[in-house]
Amino acid sequence: DLRKQARQLENELDLKLVSFSKLCTSYSSTRDGRRDRYSSDTTPLLNGSSQDRMFETMAVEIEQLLGKLTGINDKMAEYTNSAGVPSLNAALMHTLQRHRDILQDYTHEFHKTKANFMAIRERENLLGSVRKDIESYKSGSGVNNRRTELFLKEHEHLRNSDRLIEETISIAMATKENMTSQRGMLKSIQSKMNTLANRFPAVNSLIQRINLRKRRDSLILGGVIGVCTILLLLYAFH
């Protein structure tokens, strides 16, 4: 008798859950269709809708059936634990476990479908409030909206100008720092050269003499080449 009652409740729950899932699916598609057809929120989408009332009614009915099925499972568990059925205890435990699994699956499916429905309804409420805010903004004065847009554009232009000026100043500061570092390097090199020249005056004088001798040798070689050229020209014209 308890198994027969459990099966009857399970069949009813199966049908109810299928209808419950279809209701949630049709609810979502109906709301999407209304949102596509109407661009404004002149009529409420959710408040006092027949689908909301049907959802609440079916949810209560399913919860009641789940409660009844839970009670039947508890009674079957008490029967399997009684002292009069020791030989059939294993088979009865297997049957009880199967009914418990079915109850757990139905409970999980119910809570999942209900959570999806609540999420869809909350999203619709949020979208509805956002649309109302947008419509209220659009229904304002056109001159004020235009003036606000101009102010926003001017503010954006000023922000862009400030950003460009800051970038230019940062580039100039980086260039200044590079030039300062290069000047310091050149000064350090010049000071090192002066130090070397002061430490080795003999080397400096020797370099000057070598340069003078090179210059004198260049003059002598140029003179010899010039004389030879003149002699060759005289010889050729003679």
Automatic annotation (TrEMBL):
Keywords: Golgi apparatus, Membrane, Protein transport, Transmembrane, Transmembrane helix, Transport. The chain crosses the membrane at residues 219-237. Signal peptide: none annotated. It is found in: Golgi apparatus membrane. Its main location: Golgi. InterPro entries: Golgi_SNAP_su1. It is a single-pass type IV membrane protein. Pfam families: V-SNARE_C (PF12352). GO terms for biological process: endoplasmic reticulum to Golgi vesicle-mediated transport; inter-Golgi cisterna vesicle-mediated transport; protein transport; vesicle fusion. One of its GO terms (cellular component) is Golgi medial cisterna. Involved in transport from the ER to the Golgi apparatus as well as in intra-Golgi transport. It belongs to a super-family of proteins called t-SNAREs or soluble NSF (N-ethylmaleimide-sensitive factor) attachment protein receptor. May play a protective role against hydrogen peroxide induced cytotoxicity under glutathione depleted conditions in neuronal cells by regulating the intracellular ROS levels via inhibition of p38 MAPK (MAPK11, MAPK12, MAPK13 and MAPK14). Participates in docking and fusion stage of ER to cis-Golgi transport. Belongs to the GOSR1 family. This is Golgi SNAP receptor complex member 1. It comes from Edolisoma coerulescens. The lineage of its organism: Eukaryota, Metazoa, Chordata, Craniata, Vertebrata.
